[in-house]
């Protein structure tokens, strides 16, 4: 095994273990911490794939901003014991969920293994060099300029939406 | 370079973990985390295929997905906070009526 394969398995295993921990811990705080582990492992995988910009964005946006938001809300709500533990999911529901999940995973793996069949993907392509941040920026500000600007509208809409949602009711003055 | 299939299989497994989480857990915050997990699995597939095709486009889309995910988390958590203010619970089974 070459170093790249070893690193792939280390990061991949870490991501999977983190993901399974997210759905099996009772307390949301532990789930959030496990999710941070998954995000970091995925950032490692992005570096392995030569996507340095995406890896940096993953750490800053996901592991940084989004997870801080999650932890903040979990601590803000300070859930009662019953909510924290979560009402026990019915065994029937759990069974259905896991069976459906395994079916879904089998389907996904089948598609992944057959990804090259019937498509124009040449399997004997030379390994391309890493995509630079320069290249991403160039594409973002030329071919994808309109989507990029629409993205800013989405962020603005989210900003206004959050303010409206959590705004306190105006005290009636009389 | 590793085969594309390894990354796609890992991505499928991560996505499935997210799906199982949404189906099995009843805590709204954990359901949200599972949605993040699924978005991230899609990002992994994007980057892996982008690398395998030797194109930059995939990473540009990951950039967009991240932005949408950030907006979605902000809105979703605000909704959870206001649901909690009204109902004092975030168990999705107990939040089952549209009427405030």
Structural account:
The complex is a heterodimer of chains A (174) and B (100). Chain A has 7 helices and no strands. Chain A is an all-alpha fold and 174 residues long. In chain A, helix 1 packs antiparallel against helix 2 (28-48) and helix 2 runs antiparallel to helix 3. Chain A is extended and about 70 Å long. The model of chain A has no long low-confidence stretch (mean pLDDT 84). Chain B has a domain at 26-87: Helix Hairpins, CATH 1.10.287. In chain B, 78% of the residues lie in helices and 0% in strands. Chain B is elongated and about 50 Å long. The model of chain B has no long low-confidence stretch (mean pLDDT 88). The chains are: A mainly alpha (174), B mainly alpha (100). At the A-B interface, helix 1, helix 2, helix 3, helix 5 and helix 6 of A face helix 1, helix 2 and helix 3 of B.
Give a quick summary of the entry.
The complex is a heterodimer of chains A (174) and B (100). Chain A has 174 residues and is mostly helical.
**What is the alpha-carbon Rg of chain A in Å?**
22 Å
pLDDT averaged over residues of chain B: 88
General form of chain B: elongated
CATH class of the domain at 26-87 in chain B: Mainly Alpha
State the end-to-end distance of chain B. Answer: 55 Å
Count of alpha/pi helices of chain B: 3
Low-confidence runs of chain A: none
CATH topology of the domain at 26-87 in chain B: Helix Hairpins
The SS-based structural class of chain A is: mainly alpha
Strand content of chain A: under 5%
H/E series of chain B = HHH
Query: Which chains have the largest interface?
Result: A-B, 81 and 72 residues
First and last CA, distance of chain A: 77 Å
**Number of extended strands of chain B:** 0
Query: What quaternary form is this?
Result: heterodimer
Structural class of chain B: mainly alpha
Helix fraction of chain A by DSSP (H/I, runs of at least 4)? over 70%
Radius of gyration of chain B: 17 Å
CATH architecture of the domain at 26-87 in chain B: Orthogonal Bundle
Give the % helix of chain B: over 70%
Helix and strand run of chain A: HHHHHHH
